[in-house]
Amino acid sequence: MKGLLTKWKIAPYLTRHDTTRHDTTRHDTTPCLRFEGSVTGGFCWEELTRRRWEDPKCLERYGYKVYSQNDEDGIIQEIFRRIGTTNKRFIEFGVQNGLESNCHYLLHKGWSGLWIEGSSKYVKEIHARFRPVIKSGQLKARNAFITRDNINELFTEEGFTGEIDLLSIDIDGNDYYVWQAVKAVKPRVVVIEFNGKFPPDLEWKQAYNSKHVWDGSDWQGASLKSYELLGRELGYQLVGTNFNGVNAFFVRGDLAGDKFITPATAENLYNPLRAGFGFRSIHPARYCLVGQQEELGAGNYGKAPKGLKGTIRRAIFKIGNVWRNG
After folding, report:
1. pTM, whole model, 2 decimals?
2. Quick one: which H or E segment has residue 9?
3. Which end of the chain has the least Cβ crowding within 10 Å, N or C?
4. Closest listed residue to residue 272, CA positions, set 170, 222, 176, 200
5. What is the per-residue pLDDT for 13?
């Protein structure tokens, strides 16, 4: 694991023959650095991660990917293992087509929730690729461009108020201001994307712009320190960041107890943005595999198999729809 956590190594001995005494068994035991590959941000962050990893409360130790972008699936699982769940309801926004998101895997575990996405094209995809759970009501998908002024109205219009278990925020820009504005729901856990380029002692957030769209540069979001302070103001404790330095995890203060690493500061829990490091899922996802009906195959998603049998099944599928809709 040490080799995973750092891209530099300390060679324990630098071998050197002592030619003056012709004794080839003597060696200079002075440590030296042997550099390999690249370092993201600085050596100090690699060392910080390595030291933190030794603590069993370290959330990065439990990270894994099923459908999340990186190791968020495992970290979310571990957080709720420690604090428990209540209604298993989530809200996530900035999901694109939903296949690679923080809450996709939760659908497999019986959760229900709301996705909000600014692209109508992606929302159309969600309705196709997640058709069984959309039909059953387990998942709602709303097309809207989120601002701090409309966020609470969007929640209430979709029937989400009061306590929920998880809120996941990833809109590549006004994330700080949107979280600050949330009043309609009271999440027990918040996952929010931070700008991992900035060191953990720096307070920085982009100026609010209701029309902001990320251009791929460092002009987005806020630093981890800014989120730590905002979280504290809203009653949340920073409990960790994922290994890639993309997402920060917060637990409501009344639930955290002694279950997580302290001090709960950005300086102690920071991971730099490790853009060159990734988690892979061997088989790519094309559809949400929850709620499928037998013998329908691709018909679960409004598509019928090819060939003569496919033609027959497609006709039966359409007749069934006509009958159900009157």
Report:
1. 0.82
2. strand 8-11
3. C
4. 200
5. 30
Its sign, for the CA torsion 4, 199, 74, 289, is negative
Measured CA to CA in angstroms, residue 63 lies from 47, 59, 167, 248 at distances of 19, 7, 18, 13
Q: What is the CATH number of domain 55-269?
A: 3.40.50.150
What would the pLDDT profile of 82-97 be if each residue is shown by its tens digit?
Answer: 999 999 999 999 999 9
- Cα 181 to Cα 258: distance, rounded to the nearest angstrom: 28
User: 26-69: per-residue pLDDT in tens?
Assistant: 444 444 445 556 666 677 878 888 889 999 999 999 999 999 99
Fill in the amino acid letter for 27: H
CB atoms within 10 A of CB 255: 17
Q: Beta-strand (E) ranges in 234-299?
A: 236-241, 247-252
Task: Note the pLDDT of residue 17.
Answer: 39
Q: Which residues of 307-323 are buried (b: 16+ CB within 10 A; e: fewer)?
A: eeebeebeeeeeeeeee
What secondary structure does DSSP assign to 152-175, as a single string? HHHHHHTT--EEEEEEEE--SSSH
What span, in angstroms and rounded, lies between the C-alpha atoms of 205 and 225? 10
DSSP strands (E only) in 224-304: 236-241, 247-252
β-pairing, 247-252 vs 185-193, is: antiparallel
pLDDT in tens, 217-266: 877 889 999 999 999 999 999 999 999 999 999 999 999 999 999 999 99
Domain ranges of the chain: 2-35, 55-269, 297-326
Rounded to the nearest 10°, the torsion over CA 140, 146, 150, 155 is 20
Beta-sheet pairing, 162-169 with 185-193: parallel
Residue 178 CA to residue 185 CA, distance in Å, equals 13
Nearest to 242 by CA among 16, 43, 76, 84: 76
- Give me the residues paired with residue 164 across strands: 187
